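In keeping with the milestone schedule agreed at the kick-off meeting, the structural modelling team has produced records for the first pair of proteins. Each record is given below as a sequence line and a structure-token line. The laboratory manager (R.T.) confirmed that both were archived under the project's standard naming scheme.
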Amino acid sequence: MALTPDDVVTKQFQHVRFKEGFDPDEVDDFLDEIVVEWRKTIAENDELKAKVAALESGAPAAPAAAETVVEEPVAETPAPAPTPAPAPAPAEGAAATAGIIELAQRLHDEHVAEGKAQRDQLIADAQAQAATIVAEAEAKGRDEIARQEKERKALEARITELRQFERDYRAELRSFIEGKLRDLETSPSGSSSTPVSAIGL
């Protein structure tokens, strides 16, 4: 599809965010200048095409006049010959048009490249941020596991101490009770000689 000045006028670009880019007003002004020059070039091209068509349509008539008239048409026929000299003008117009198209394409490519670079930068930043968050979470997890392991060891040590204390207490209590039982067994039983009335029963 051929590119027209109206295409340049109506072309919409996405605004760049979070990164420096071209000034939209400067780009619009420059594109307006391109459109003006392009329209002039198209108008000149159309005018030259019309002149070429007129010359081509008038070219066969000149030799016919040359046959009827003796030498005057021969003098007149070279007069139109220099007029095709501006024929390079369409080439110049086409070159200018091609230059404008190339410039517009270059601007487009720059915008696309800038957008891709911004996209890649955003992805890299997001990946770096995600890696940082994951690393922090893993570090916190390791710290929490170490703290809980330390607490578990402290509790196990306390439980071991309490069990040892229980064993020692039971052993001492058993020794105490057994000692009291031995004392009761070895003490003289004077209760048998004591009358029941003395006890108060």
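The second protein of the pair:
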Amino acid sequence: MAAATDLPTSASLAETIKHDYRTIALVLQGGGALGAYQAGVFEALNDAGIHPSWIAGISIGALNAAIIAGNPPKHRVERLREFWQTICRPPLLPMWSTPPLDPSAWELPWLNGLSGWAALRALTEGQPGFFVPRPFPLLPWRASPTTASWYDTAPLKATLERLVDFDRINHKTAMRVSVGAVNIRTGNFAYFDNTEGELRVEHFMASGSLPPGFPATEIDGEFYWDGGMVSNTPLYKVLSDASCRDSLVFQVDLWSAHGELPRDLAEVTSRAKDIQYSSRTRLITEFMGMRQKQQRVVSDLMALVPEEHRHDPAYRRAEIYAGGALVNLFHLIYRNKPYEGHYKDYEFSHGSMQQHWSSGMDDMQCTLKEPHWFARPTAEHPFITHDAHCED
């Protein structure tokens, strides 16, 4: 980690952050049922008095973003909990309550079995307030972009409309909100941003419309799928648009790039998902870090140009590539539990949700115990990253 100046104390951390950074961004990745980890991270930030000015999400991250931005600050954690308790309530009888808090017990075979059973029930029965199986989805005369899926997400639309105030999201003084989706017709990635246009429930649902499970979402005559099909993190959007502002970024990922060597086909499937969805995150982080450093170098060099030469066309062209912003990026990554399988992203049991939420809170709280990490970067090291989590 790079050295930094003006180290804050824990007692004044929230005030120091507000003073040192013009943008505080919360970047939320896709990952289905694992998204409760993001809710735990947010609760810890909220308890510490650190309030994001910008929230960007993809897939389940976009749904969490809607709940956070679409409620008053004092009700955000409460509404997040209501959302997760709604979509994680078992369809019939609870099969298990909470996995054991003692990690030594996680290897018990019955835990793996119950977790797998909860995932199977999600596939066959759906999840209340989220999605339900579509009857006879393969019938040809039912073909339509909005019905070509295994599940109907009408319950999710009703849940979001109940828990989210979209007028608040679109208010001119609101927190900035960006969510990503893929235009099916063009194959291009698209961001929907409340600083550029009105965001409706469809924009958030489009970001989570993962085929073939969920149907395409129509917005103004175009159809969209889950943004994670192209990029599972909106980090690029945040750092590109905030290139001239000193920024503190919390990137909350649900897939770990590091893992054990798989020993069977189930583990192969699980490990493949981790690599598929985390590799882009690492690539984008490294690319944006290099880009930010290059912009800073160009900016510093331009400051050496005498005033009489600053109207030269070459100088004007260089201005496009210059940037003096400082970025402090915290990378919080959910770590798999031993009882979880390849189905972890659609295992919506209430017990697993509580574990995911608790892990997010623990990781963020441990990070907040290191106030010197939050100091503003220096001109020599304009882009700092921290891989932050609690040790077991």
